[in-house]
Structures are given as structure tokens and as C-alpha cells.
What does this fold into?
Amino acid sequence: MQELSCTSCGNRVLVDKYSPTHTSIQWLTDAEKSCPRFAAQVEAGVRSMWIPTCPALRESIDRAAGNGALRTDALRSEPIPGRLG
Ligand SMILES: [Zn+2]
It folds into this structure.
């Protein structure tokens, strides 16, 4: 996993990105306390376990993956046919 921080709230998380559609995020801190966007939703009555992730954080991850700052492990975990050896 790689460490990344949300460009909006500065919250630090660990990210694993296997493909453009698969991203797993591990919070290093209590999301409800460290992310204003989470806090706002929880305050509005949404349980934090139902909040997929902070939209700003998702954007940060996409940007990092786009500019190469975040490695995607797709090539390692999914061998490409015809490129053996
Ligand atoms: Zn955030």
C-alpha cells in the first residue's frame, strides 16, 4: 500500500490501486474526525460505514494514479497473455 493524503483535508490514508476501477483505501485515522466531508455526512445522520469515501480524496487518488505518483499493480497481478518470459 502507498501513503497518500487528501488534497482537500490533508487526511492521510493508505491506498492500493489495482486498476482504474478497483481502489482500496485504508484510513490511518478516524475518518469522522479527520475528514470534514465525512464529519458533515455523519452529522447529517449518515453512518460512516455507508460513506464510500471522501470525494476529494477519491480525486486525489485518481490524480496521483494519472501522473504516476501512485503505482497501479495491475500488470503484476494480472499477467498479460503473449508476454510470457
Ligand atoms: Zn477529505
The beta strands are 2-5, 12-17, 23-27. The chain has a mean pLDDT of 81.
